[in-house]
Specification:
By secondary structure, this protein is α+β, with helices and mostly antiparallel strands. The protein has a single domain, classed as Jelly Rolls (Sandwich). The protein is about 20% helix and about 40% strand. The strands form three sheets. Strands 1, 3, 4, 6, 11, 12, 13 and 17 form an eight-stranded antiparallel sheet that branches. Strands 2-5-14-7-8-9-10 form a seven-stranded antiparallel sheet, with no helix packed on it. It has a two-stranded antiparallel ribbon with strand order 15-16.
Length: about 250
C-alpha cells in the first residue's frame, strides 16, 4: 500500500515538474519575444533618423517589395533577382528570402561615379543559419569601392573593405547575432572611422589604415552574395529588407 502511494506521489511530482517546465518555457519565450520586439523597435527608430545621425543624404533605396529590387531613390542602381529568391513577409511589408546556394540580387551599375569620402549602408537582415564558410555576404559593391557587410561563421556581423596598398581590413561585432531574428545593420564609412551598428547600437569601430580604396574593377553591386568576374560565392541564407545607401554630407 505504501509503495502504491509513493508511486502516486512520484507521478504527481513528475506532472508538476512537467507543468513548471512548460510554464517556464512559455515565460522564457515571451521574454525573448519581448526582447526581440524591443530590439526591432530600436532598429526602426534608428533607421528613421539615420540621416540626422550620420549627416548624409539618401542616394539609393531598395524596399525589396512585390518581388522587385528596383532603386526607388535617385541612384538608378536597380537590381536583377537571380536564382533561389522568394518574396516573404518583411520587417514592415514584404521582403526577399535568399536560399543560400544561388539566390542573389545583382546590378551592373556602380554606386559611385568617383571614389567617395563618406558613405553609409543601412539594411535589415534575418539570417536563417550560421554559415559554414568564412562569411556570407549581405552586401557588396565595387568599381571605385570594394566594401561588404557580412555574417561570420561565429554568427557575428562584420564590415570589410579593401584599400590600396594594404588590402582587406574591417571590424566584427563583439556580440553574436542568432539566426531566426531580425537585425538592423548600419555600416558607416569615412576615412577617419568605420562604424558598425546593430539595432541602433555601436557594435564595433575601426580606424582605416588609409583613405584610398582599391580601384581594380573586380566585382559588381550585389545583395546576398559575393560577385566577381571569376564567379559568385559566399551566398547569404536568410531574408533581407529595406536596403539604403547614403552619401554626400549635408551642410
Amino acid at each position: 500500500m505504501i509503495s502504491k502511494i509513493s508511486g502516486f506521489v512520484i507521478i504527481e511530482v513528475l506532472v508538476v515538474v512537467a507543468i513548471m517546465g512548460i510554464l517556464s518555457s512559455v515565460v522564457l519565450g515571451n521574454v525573448r519575444s519581448a526582447r526581440e520586439k524591443a530590439e526591432i523597435a530600436m532598429g526602426k527608430a534608428f533607421d528613421s533618423h539615420i540621416y540626422r545621425v550620420i549627416g548624409l543624404s539618401l542616394l539609393s533605396k531598395w524596399s525589396l517589395e512585390n518581388g522587385a529590387a528596383g532603386d526607388e531613390a535617385e541612384g538608378g542602381n536597380g537590381g536583377e533577382i537571380i536564382g533561389g529568391v522568394t518574396e516573404v513577409a518583411g520587417i514592415t511589408s514584404n521582403a526577399l528570402q535568399f536560399n543560400g546556394t544561388n539566390g542573389l540580387v545583382q546590378s551592373p551599375s556602380s554606386f559611385f561615379d568617383t571614389t567617395p569620402t563618406e558613405f553609409t549602408v543601412s539594411l535589415w537582415a534575418k539570417p536563417s543559419v550560421i554559415p559554414p564558410s568564412e562569411n556570407a555576404v549581405l552586401f557588396y559593391s565595387t568599381r571605385n569601392v570594394e566594401f561588404m557587410v557580412g555574417y561570420s561563421t561565429e554568427g557575428k556581423f562584420f564590415v570589410s573593405y579593401k584599400l590600396d596598398p594594404t588590402g582587406w581590413e574591417g571590424v566584427t561585432a563583439g556580440s553574436k547575432s542568432s539566426p531566426g531574428k531580425w537585425y538592423h545593420l548600419v555600416a558607416s564609412w569615412s576615412s577617419g572611422k568605420v562604424v558598425l551598428y546593430v539595432n541602433g547600437l555601436v557594435a564595433g569601430t575601426i580606424i582605416p589604415t588609409g583613405n584610398v580604396f582599391a580601384t581594380t574593377p573586380s566585382g559588381y553591386l550585389a545583395f546576398a552574395a559575393f560577385v566577381r568576374p571569376t564567379g559568385t560565392t559566399n551566398y547569404f541564407k536568410g531574408i533581407l529588407d529595406g536596403i539604403s545607401l547614403y552619401i554626400e554630407t549635408i551642410h
